[in-house]
Design brief:
Elements lengths: L6 H27 L6 H10 L1 H8 L7 E2 L8 E4 L7 E8 L4 E8 L4 E6 L3 H5 L11 H4 L8 E5 L5 E4 L3 E6 L5 E16 L5 E6 L7 H4 L12 E6 L5 E6 H7 L22 E6 L12 E5 L4 E6 L4 E6 L7 E7 L2 E6 L2 E4 L3 E4 L4 E6 L4 E5 L1 H6 L9 E4 L5 E5 L4 E5 L5 E6 L7 E2 L5 E3 L2 H13 L6
Antiparallel strand pairs: 1-27, 2-26, 3-4, 3-28, 4-5, 6-7, 7-8, 8-9, 9-10, 10-11, 11-12, 13-14, 14-15, 15-16, 17-18, 18-21, 19-20, 21-22, 23-24, 24-25, 25-26
Helix pairs in contact: 1-2
């Protein structure tokens, strides 16, 4: 039935296959990080190499949507209800719907009070899908879109972004109010005391000279020119500043040119992941300042837009941190991932995540409820949220593991939530938000009273 193949032909085929694979790998690397390119040859090699992952993306797989199941005995909410009025904007990838949704949950009953499920494909159809948004239909379609850090406004609208996507606002019925496509927005979304929106973008074209950083868009392996941006409540940009330029103008350009053993150009040297506006004057900050978390720099800075200067920075014993919050007039909290790179090329959490409190009065840092985080083995590697409530309770999102936790101020675990679907898999959570302040509760109550009925 089958013809015999000469052994020399088999060996020659294997040798040529190996040489082809090596050559293809060289061309792909040259296209991604090389100082010189091989024109259409390297571009074609990269296209061929991306066929498998692009096929999976078109079919709805990949992108960390399905997670390692670290908690096989947990499903949904487990534990004790909150006694005080507290709500959760729970942003998840719903494995049953195969869509990203946001749910408003009453933590006194674990009851879902409202769900937002926007038609992302319809929103995408309204924008020019070139340059930064070239791959929206592939990477950020309705079955792959993650609603990052949703924020409920006083008017009852929901603001969110995603991974290098437009900043969007929707109403109670998930209808589009606006989407800002000035640049690709990402990570945290906050508002200041005046109702203005603070978040991050990847500036394109990049603000730095082309001879320094090139001109590829971030989604095409270009330099990620992280910037902080302030928008009006209606989505108009009021202020934007490149963090690369902030570092350069404040004598820290070396931060952009650190050389590793590979001596390759760093495409993502900053990786800004949180912008926290300051709303009142204090001994150590002024209204209008912003705390900024620079993940790949393992550094927190306090930036003063009014004078264009870094007035304070912290970079000791924090590793790829996220989520800086103001705790009191002289304290901030930091969600420290403890993410490190160990030999040989191990990307790990070294122990567990930490909630750190920096005290400006004493110029010292301490760990908050550290034994509790160790006991519950909290160790999200590349993302995460941590919020100390005014009464001392602690809210944690373990993003990479699909788990949310709430600790009492004495360190005991009150409840957990694991985002498990009916298929048994655990799926992503996407920077959920705890609502506990007097203003938060008033906003929720106003929303529930005025949201009306949506047409299904």
């Amino acid at each position: 039935m089958f013809k015999k193949i000469e052994i020399w032909i088999l060996y020659l085929t294997l040798l040529l296959s190996i040489l082809f694979a090596i050559g293809l790998s060289v061309l792909v690397r040259q296209e991604l990080v090389g100082s010189t390119k091989a024109g259409w040859i390297s571009k074609t090699a990269l296209t061929l190499a991306e066929i498998p992952i692009n096929t999976l993306r078109l079919l709805g797989f990949g992108h960390d949507l399905t997670l390692e199941d670290r908690f096989p005995n947990l499903d949904g909410f487990n534990g004790t209800l909150n006694s005080e009025e507290t709500y959760l904007l729970l942003s998840i990838y719903d494995g049953d719907l195969q869509e990203g949704v946001v749910r408003l949950v009453d933590l006194r009953s674990f009851k879902i009070l409202h769900t937002w499920n926007p038609d992302i494909d319809a929103f995408n159809d309204l924008i020019d899908q070139t340059d930064e948004f070239k791959y929206m239909q592939r990477d950020l379609n309705n079955s792959r879109y993650l609603l990052y850090h949703p924020l409920l406004t006083k008017k009852g609208d929901l603001i969110f972004n995603s991974i290098n996507a437009p900043l969007r606002k929707i109403d109670a019925c998930s209808n589009l109010v606006f989407q800002n496509t000035h640049d690709g927005f990402h990570h945290s979304v906050e508002t200041d005391i005046d109702g203005n929106i603070w978040t991050s973008t990847h500036m394109y074209p990049q603000s730095l000279p082309i001879e320094k950083v090139g001109r590829k868009t971030p989604r095409e392996n270009g330099f990620k020119d992280d910037a902080i941006v302030k928008l009006s409540p209606d989505g108009e940009i009021l202020y934007e500043k490149s963090i690369s330029r902030i570092l350069i103008e404040n004598g820290m350009e070396s931060r952009l040119s650190m050389v590793g053993t590979s001596h390759t150009f760093q495409l993502d040297p900053i990786h800004n992941n949180d912008v926290q506006p300051v709303n009142v004057d204090g001994k150590y900050w002024k209204k209008g300042d912003v705390f900024i978390s620079l993940g790949h720099q393992s550094m927190i800075i306090l930036w003063r837009p009014s004078t264009e200067e870094i007035v304070w920075k912290y970079e000791s014993n924090i590793f790829h941190q996220h989520d800086v919050n103001i705790v009191s007039e002289h304290q901030i909290s930091i969600f420290n991932n403890n993410r490190k790179y160990h030999y040989p090329n191990k990307d790990i959490v070294d122990g567990n995540n930490q909630i750190l409190i920096f005290n400006f009065d004493t110029d010292s840092i301490s760990s908050y409820l550290s034994k509790s985080l160790v006991r519950e083995d909290v160790r999200t590697i590349s993302q995460g949220r941590g919020q100390i409530l005014s009464n001392g309770d602690l809210f944690i999102e373990e993003t990479n593991d699909g788990r949310t936790l709430f600790f009492n101020k004495d360190g005991t675990l009150r409840w957990t939530h694991v985002n498990r679907a009916e298929d048994g898999n655990v799926y992503r959570v996407n920077w959920s938000r705890i609502l506990y302040t007097r203003e938060d509760i008033q906003t929720v109550n106003n929303f529930l009273t005025n949201k009306g009925t949506c047409n299904e």
